[in-house]
Design goal:
Domain Class II Histidinyl-tRNA synthetase (HisRS)-like catalytic core: 8-312
Shape: elongated
Number of strands: 16
Order of helices and strands: HEEHEEHEEHEHHHHEHHEEEEHEHEEE
Number of helices: 12
CATH topology of the largest domain: BirA Bifunctional Protein, domain 2
Pathway: Amino-acid biosynthesis; L-histidine biosynthesis; L-histidine from 5-phospho-alpha-D-ribose 1-diphosphate: step 1/9
Strand order of the largest sheet: 1-5-6-12-11-10-7-9-8
Function: Required for the first step of histidine biosynthesis. May allow the feedback regulation of ATP phosphoribosyltransferase activity by histidine.
Helix content: 25-40%
Strand content: 15-25%
Structural class: alpha+beta
Distance between the termini: 37 Å
Largest sheet: 9 strands, mixed
CATH class of the largest domain: Alpha Beta
GO molecular function: glycosyltransferase activity
Binding site for L-histidine: 79-81, 122, 126, 262
Radius of gyration: 26 Å
Amino acid sequence: MNWLLPEYIADALPAEAARIERLRRTVLDHFRERGFELVMPPMLEYLESLLTGAGQDLHLRTFKLVDQLSGRTMGVRADITPQAARIDAHLLNHQGVTRLCYCDSVLHTLPATISAGREPLQIGAELYGYEGIEADLSIIRLMAGALEKIKLPMSRIDLGHVGIFRALAEAAGLPQEAEESLLLLLQTKDVPGLIDACAEVPSPYREALQRLPALYGGVEVLDRATAELPALPAISAALEGLRHLIASAPELPFSVDLSDLRGYHYHNGVVFAAYCPDYPAAIALGGRYDGAGKAFGRARPATGFSMDLREVARLVPAMKSQGAVLAPCAPQDRLLAAHIAALREQGETVVELLPNETACEGPLCDRKLAKVGERWIIEAIQED
């Protein structure tokens, strides 16, 4: 019988698993060094908890099942961010700033992109309790530093602000159905469809909504947006916040996309997406989602980012793996046992052969322990 995994679900074999684990340790250490504390939420929760507040957009992506103990509907998490918001608001109950990070598998009913899997290994960081734009800048720098640590170059960081579209929709008096329709058209950058859908929207909001897909490019886009969009207070504040971010981090490759509205229903401020060369999709996503903890007892300012380590591992330059040392089967040789222990203390991988085992199938052994006189020495393994 052929044992097949479900579509878009895959094993991680030793080489890939080792690469993912190295990246996990590197990124989590990067977070820890900056004061972000690791949390480990459960894989399953009651559905209303997973889909409350920050999680409303996840309804269609969440696997659902019935809890045999309580009879209530449970969900397999599709995103760890709502769980982190619950931990901050309901369990930690800090009054000041809280910095949390996480790394674990999530499960999606459908892949997010054609190249993505349905079991991402989500790693990310969240900052709670600070309203200012400085928190968004801190998270963006944390993301950029993590990508630099794992040697994954960024081609650009797209900045947007969901408050701009929200302000236009509110000022134009759009009903919920029309707002959702325009949101979808903007996300797909369907300009002809957008023009048709805006036919009944009053001026100047009709023209502003139609201009959003074109407000994309370098930082000069913010000046164009100031000139072309209505001078609503929320729009002016959003554009000023984006200017502040760009001016505060001139070392980062910022670009602007004012029609990037991913996560619109829970983001309420700055949003950003990091891209790397020769890869079409965003490699890391983040943004501000104030108030996500309201359903758990406290509405706290919040901003954060996450990425899929499985996807990242495919893009990171391969590192030459350190070969292992092959040790013969000699269970009674105390000198050999001491030598093996010393090598392992030094960080070497040593594979001890079992009785009648003649070779190691993996990991790759490029050296071996050989006895010369009364001493054990390391020799290179000569390829045949």
